[in-house]
Write a structure and sequence with these properties.
CATH architecture of the largest domain: Alpha/alpha barrel
Strand order of the largest sheet: 3-5-4
Strand content: under 5%
Number of helices: 20
Length: about 475
């Protein structure tokens, strides 16, 4: 055999040898540690999708691979990842990266935790920034990468009129008839966080003028809902100004375990089914921020001094709290203080507890706060601060980071009021109006298929759809 035939056979044999070599290399490169990490991520995403079958599938694979990795282990992993929505290979969704730390990285970050807590408590923005820059150096290309993402939804055309959106909002509330009637009587719902009442109150405030215009016969009911939820928040507010947290032991695994640990170390007090002491880890800033803002908005609408005073008490409490290591917790008092007219206090919280944590990619550097759901909390605080060179330096890359995700994945979160506030302040960001309409359409689609109606989104998010349509009129 001579000439070109021998050359073709040689090339074919070389290809086979290279294929065998690289296939073997892939199997050898997959370690037990890597397989466990990828399965952990797949299980987490499956749980967040609330898909029991997917969770069980991933857990079965984890059990199968626990004893050792077969030759097709990587292939099995890739199939599981594809099923839950992760790009095969484990560390991205729709090309958007997922947090993938090394053991060395995690140990180094843990060592920085107490230093960050001390710097936050000191109120020294320079000290906080020194620690966060050290953390960013440890994380490298993993800085600002979230440890979980949500599957995005592709938007459809938003065809509703404002009057139709008002009717949808009212019909969606009617599907929760018993709960809404309970709230109108200013009575508590079982095992709900104060933020739930604040979301209903906020929606009622947003919708008040729109219902008066398009469904005036329903204004009386909306007023009952508004005053009922505001009354609940007035009763729940603690004398110091903060809001309590329900005792969820035996009802919620995560919060129940957290409560047990805090009881054991004596850091909390429970009374009448509520944890009445502020969360030592800063979590009380969440509900206090949301509830305080809702009460201020209700007070301004109705000219009610009781609601306004309660909102200001919440703000005064928030102003006295030390910043904590959770950047999105620190963002809640920024919003509350800004809405209460305490701009300098809000800026100080921003400088110490929010701005130093931003990574170069526009998100917040730790994998928890890099998650989109927490990213938009921080964005809301930036919108509430208003425009300045100092705030814009943080807000603009943060907005772009969110819109980049939407471009790649579709709409991944409900954040319509947040985007609206940003769009009003940043008309130069041309992608925001489209993102707003896309998000509005996905919220509508969660609440109706064109025939049946349900409250498939938070009420203040559905109420914001009407604002979008009013804005475009």
């Amino acid at each position: 055999m001579r000439g070109p035939h021998r050359t073709l056979i040689f090339v074919a044999l070389l290809r086979i040898i290279l294929l065998i070599f690289f296939s073997s290399a892939v199997v050898q490169a997959l370690t037990q540690e890597e397989a466990v990490a990828r399965l952990r991520m797949a299980r987490q995403i499956a749980r967040e999708r609330n898909d029991r079958e997917l969770v069980q599938r991933v857990e079965r694979l984890a059990r199968d691979l626990k004893a050792g990795l077969p030759a097709d282990a990587d292939e099995q992993l890739r199939e599981a990842e594809k099923a839950v929505g992760i790009d095969p290979g484990g560390w991205s969704m729709a090309g958007q990266p997922l947090f993938h730390p090394t053991a060395t990285m995690e140990a180094a970050l843990k060592a920085e935790g107490p230093k960050l807590a001390a710097a936050m408590a000191s109120g020294d923005a320079k000290a906080v920034r020194e620690i966060t820059r050290a953390m960013e150096g440890i994380l490298g290309d993993q800085a600002g990468v979230p440890d979980g993402r949500r599957m995005g939804q592709k938007a459809s055309e938003l065809k509703l009129s404002r009057a139709d959106a008002v009717k949808l909002f009212l019909a969606a509330l009617e599907t929760q008839g018993r709960a809404m009637r309970t709230l109108m009587k200013s009575e508590l719902l079982p095992d709900q966080m104060p933020r739930v009442y604040a979301y209903v109150l906020d929606a009622s405030v947003t919708m008040h003028s729109h219902v008066a215009l398009h469904a005036p016969e329903r204004v009386a009911d909306l007023d009952k809902l508004l005053r009922g939820t505001a009354g609940i928040l007035l009763r729940l507010q603690q004398p110091q100004g903060h809001f309590p947290f329900p005792d969820l032991r035996g009802k919620n695994i995560r919060f129940g375990d957290m409560t047990e640990k805090q009881l054991q170390n004596g850091s909390i007090e429970i009374k009448d089914g509520w944890i009445i002491t502020p969360d030592p880890e800063g979590g009380s800033q969440f509900d206090t921020g949301v509830c305080g803002v809702a009460l201020l908005r209700a007070g301004e609408l109705l000219k009610d001094d009781n609601y306004l005073a309660a909102g200001r008490r919440a703000a005064e409490w928030a102003a006295k709290q030390k910043c904590c290591t959770n950047f999105n917790y620190n963002a809640f008092p920024v919003s509350l203080l800004a809405c209460a007219g305490m701009k300098e206090a809000a800026l100080e919280k921003f400088r110490v507890g929010v701005a130093p944590g931003q990574a170069k990619n526009g998100r917040w550097l730790d994998s928890h706060n890099a998650r989109t759901v927490y990213h938009v909390i921080i964005l809301r605080a930036l919108a509430d601060l208003g425009r300045s060179a100092e705030v814009d330096a943080v807000a603009l890359p943060a907005i772009r980071a969110l819109l980049d995700e939407f471009d790649a994945m579709g709409i991944t979160v409900e954040a319509l009021p947040e985007l609206q506030a940003l769009a009003k302040q940043h008309p130069e960001e041309a992608r925001l109006p489209k993102a707003i309409r896309d998000m509005a359409s996905t919220i509508v689609n969660k609440c109706t298929d064109g025939t049946r109606v349900k409250l498939g989104a938070q009420p203040h998010q559905l109420g914001a759809v009407v604002e979008v349509l009013a804005w475009s009129d």
